Amino acid sequence: MADYALFIGWGEVVRGREETAVRVFQETVEFWAQAQQDGQIDGFEPFLLEPHGGGLAGFMLVYGDRGRLDALRGREDFERVMARAGAVVDELGVVTAYAGEALARQMGVFQQTASELV
């Protein structure tokens, strides 16, 4: 598995846009499936959360190496997919996630910083 991922999280569907949200979700899944088929990402997994009183209603993990993920985030078609999603859900966010060796490096940076600030 890749050492990096994009964590794409979203909140509740905007009231009145439920049907559009279903369509945009399917478009988004198709976007990521094509990116995987083209070798731009290693894979992706969408998740929906049961109601829990918090702001996060679902998320998607998109796996790949850092360079390819960063390049993909700068593309116009990615920005368009995110703009469409942002029009139908609240609190859309995209953030880099670390795993494997990348997580170990981040923890090393944190540990070094923590020891320097004691």
Tags for this model:
single chain, 118 residues, alpha+beta, Alpha-Beta Plaits, 4-stranded antiparallel β-sheet, 47% helix
Structure overview:
The protein has one domain (4-116): Alpha-Beta Plaits. Helix 1 (18-37) runs antiparallel to helix 3. The chain starts with a strand and ends with a helix. The longest helix is centred in the N-terminal third of the chain and has 20 residues, at 18-37. With 118 residues, it is of the alpha+beta class. It has four helices and four strands. The protein has a four-stranded antiparallel β-sheet with strand order 2-3-1-4.
Topology:
Layout: E1 4-10, H1 18-37, E2 43-48, E3 58-64, H2 66-73, H3 76-86, E4 93-98, H4 100-116
Antiparallel strand pairs: 1-3, 1-4, 2-3
Helix pairs in contact: 1-3
Short description:
The protein is α+β, with helices and mostly antiparallel strands and 118 residues long.
| Low-confidence sequence ranges | none
The largest β sheet comes out as: 4 strands, antiparallel
CATH class: Alpha Beta
Mean pLDDT rating: 95
| CATH topology annotation | Alpha-Beta Plaits
Alpha plus pi helix count: 4
What shape does the CA trace take?
globular
Number of domains: 1
Oligomer: single chain
Structural class: alpha+beta
Alpha carbon gyration radius? 16 Å
Please count the beta strands (DSSP E, at least 2 residues each).
Answer: 4
Order of SSEs: EHEEHHEH
From the N-terminal CA to the C-terminal CA, the straight-line distance is 35 Å
Q: Per DSSP, what share of the residues sits in E-state strands of 2 or more residues?
A: 15-25%
